[in-house]
Amino acid sequence: MARHIQCALDPGCTSWPLKEGKQVPGKFVDNRDAPGLHRITENVPSYPDGVTYYSRNSYQKDQACQRGFPYYELGLPADKYNPPDQQCDEFPFASTREGAGVGDWNFSVLGVTAKVNGCAGRELQRYYKNDRILVWQTGIPTDAEDEFFVHITDAPDTSGPETCEEDPNENPVTDQPPTVDAGQDVTGDEGSVITLSGSASDAESTPDTGWTYAPGPDTDPGASCSFTAAGSTTTGITCTDDGTYRVTLSAYDGVNGAVSDSATVTVNNVAPGVAERPSRATVTVTATTPGIATPTPWQVFRVEEPVKLTANFTDPGLNDTHVCSANWDDGASQTFTSRGRQCVREHTYTQPGMYTISTGVTDDDDGVADAASVMVIVYDPQGGFATQGGFLNSPAGALIDDPAATGKLTVELNPKYLPGETGPVPGGGKVAASLQGAALDLDSTALEWLVVTVDQKVAVKGTGTVNGVPGYGFVAYGTDTPDAVRLVVWPLSAGQYPQETLLYDNRGKAGYDLDVSDPQPLDGGSLQVHQ
Questions:
Q1: Beta-bridge mates of residue 356
Q2: Where is this region: Disordered (predicted)?
Q3: Number of domains in the chain
């Protein structure tokens, strides 16, 4: 034991765990400003996470002797530690504030026999008692701390091998160490609380307990965990990444050395989530809404104007990294690294149309988020115009308030951008529609935008009156070949674009993107796209 301490305090002697420039505190150099040692017990004080100094010292010491986390190849070689014939000895002592639990690797471990270990432990306890070394506590003045040092002398060893005996004048130690059980191995999700059900008991007293953890070799660097109550036998652990973690419950009765037991926590990956933007009919959408923040639904852009995609996502795996994807609906798609918990990209459309942008996220453990999407409008004031006059047979269900109503729907439209206009509002034309035999007579009062595509499709949006009453929005879709029209009308009180609450839609099962709008063929008249 003395040789171990002497080597630990000698920078020129190899001690484990290996560390360049190791400086183990406690060496007597006849200088009270040198770093000394301070006595502690298991119950006072504790680290901020609730684990006591004694428990942290014992845990780190055991990890170094067993080449566990984080010591691995730098821990004690197998030929220096041979359990159960040997115990793991440490310096500075486990009963000091400067022990292995500090976490700076400035300590030493070595395998020694149980008899030698017990003998030295009794000598240390006698020293604490005889010299009245007070227990270090938080809050006491610095000049009132009982600091002590250790001096190893090179006197000849005349005691013989392992002849240390207990002092017959001292009461023998009959207190038995506590028993501890870390509970069963458990499984849960990253970012969620996983319950640990351990137990500890002692015949003579209630032992102090504390949990520690160590990430396994399959866990990504940077992963960490926290306990809801590290000093309680039943607690919860929350980890920032998937993988396996070794959790250890230690118990200390104030007399015997700390006793520990371990269990394995398997943490599953949770895929990131990109939420769809909530409906404007039920919530006010702002830039902080989870999901796609920009562009907003039905936002209008001119051709060659950059469109910025900003999508927020969540992931309980705080240690995960992410790759975003964007499909721009014009044949272009991209993958790129996220910025924190956000996907950000810009894209420029060169042709007018209605485009449904979709985005998704994949984490570094192959967890994939459901895609979120948003539709934008891209217009070109030089793209052409449309004229239409004719009728179609309105199907049952098209008039929402009177699903049985059918009849001839007459539609006329002739929207156009006038020379020199930059849009998005077209300065020429209007839209009108009337359903024969039913209370639906639409007249436009304002147009908002006009889209004419290169494949001779057209869409126009605006506001108007129904049966002379203002406060309605409409979108009219059409194709030149075949001649076909779709009309969607809704109350503006339900939103600035069509959603759940409608007044009329003759293609109610189709989407609102022009490419999937599915206009109904005319039964008379025609629609012409002029480019």
A1: 375
A2: 154-211
A3: 4
Task: List the 322-327 sheet strands across, edge first.
Answer: 299-302, 372-379, 353-363, 322-327, 333-337
Domain of 199, in residue numbers: 180-268
- Structural element, H or E, at residue 422: none
3-state secondary structure 17-58: CCCCCCCCCCECCCCCCCCCEEECCCCCCECCCCCEHHHHHH
401 and 523 assigned to the same domain: yes
Residue 161 lies in a domain: no
Global pTM?
Answer: 0.61
DSSP three-state, residue 124: helix
Tell me, yes or no, whether 135 and 256 share the same domain. no
* C-alpha distance from residue 493 to each of 66, 194, 439 (Å): 70, 47, 19
In the block, residue with structure tokens 């030149």: 480
Mean pLDDT by 10 residues, the chain (531 residues): 93 94 92 85 60 81 89 91 87 91 94 85 85 72 73 75 55 68 94 94 80 92 92 93 94 78 95 59 32 93 96 89 94 92 94 95 88 94 94 94 92 95 94 89 96 96 96 96 96 95 94 96 94 86
Residue 405 has which token pair? 């109503």
- Which residue is listed with tokens 């020129």? 12
CB atoms within 10 A of CB 104: 12
Q: What is the pLDDT of residue 198?
A: 93
Which domain-ending residue is among 102, 131, 148? Answer: 148
Residues 371 and 393 occupy one common structural domain: no
Report pLDDT for 35.
87
Percent of the chain that is helix, strand, coil (3-state, to 5) = 10, 40, 50
Residues 505 and 425 placed together within one structural domain of the fold:
yes
